[in-house]
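[step 3/7] fold_predict: job queued, chain A
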Amino acid sequence: MTLPSRLQQFVTQFERVIDSAGGDEETILAQGRPLLGDLIGTDDWLPEEFAKPHPQYYQQYLLYCDPQERFSVISFVWGPGQKTPVHDHKVWALIGMMRGSERGERFAVPTPGQPMQCIGDDRLEPGDIDCVSPRLGDIHRVSNIYDDRVSISIHVYGGNIGRIERHVYDQATGTPKSFISGYSNATA
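[step 4/7] structure written:
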């Protein structure tokens, strides 16, 4: 796939951040945040095939994966009212809101056999950027705020997120279940 020029520019700049950061998460998030802000600040570059909702399930489209799997760029397309289960990531991530709005509910690390504890929620509007990581807290549930329209966010993960073994959690018991998400448009 040939990347749209705005996305290619972002990838090139983000590769420089990854190359110079030496794996330091704080540096990657701090320097990557404004780059993602520039990318989502203009909403004219995302190809239509990566902006299509599914009537039942949110879509996770792979836009780019670094050849060394140091990072991946994903468009998340949320149909009206769609949401994720409570899940984790196991890597750092930058989440940039491009269209619509999302609600992110953050959860504490579960205590086995106990209900999951929500420790806050955030609303992302176009242009807003959030960060998650195991160090910062990376267990959350995300939902489209709107029941009548699509929302789209662009995520940058510290690895090939479609191949990383992660967990979904039973909210009533905190019990984790392993999963690998894959992508809506590609094999991981």
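[step 5/7] annotate
The chain is about 20% helix and 30% strand.
The radius of gyration is 16 Å.
exit 0
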